[in-house]
Amino acid sequence: MAESVIDDAVLVLSELLSNACKHGRPLGDALAGDGDVRAAWQVDAGGRLVVEVTDGGGPTRPAPAKPSVTAHGGRGLNIITALADDWGVRDDARGEVTVWVVVHDDVHDPDAGHRRDDFAARISAPAVSEIPGLDFADAFDELG
After folding, report:
1. Looking at residue 20, which CATH number applies to its domain?
2. Is residue 83 within 8 Å of 104, Cβ to Cβ?
3. Single pTM value for the model
């Protein structure tokens, strides 16, 4: 794997683990001390790196959020979407939820590098000037 793919996979794994710990229930019997999450990776038949994290499910389905400019979180799945060829959620009969991500691969996907170039623009909040109803000029007019 290219070093850039590994770097992206590490960031994706970090986001998935953070989400699992924050939003998911642990696997197994947490009262018995074996509550945990499971992380895995594999190279698929097409040579792409697939990263997955499994937890005990949560109150909501994983979905990208639209955080406010001042939000302290809510960007994780947007980051994953920006770095991934594809991602999704798989449920099983025990209630376990697995979020899987196919990480961009510059070798198999020549456009991956171009998507990485505008990464910050795709995951950042809108410019203050684009937020409706927020006009600093009015505040300063009152000061004289």
Report:
1. 3.30.565
2. yes
3. 0.70
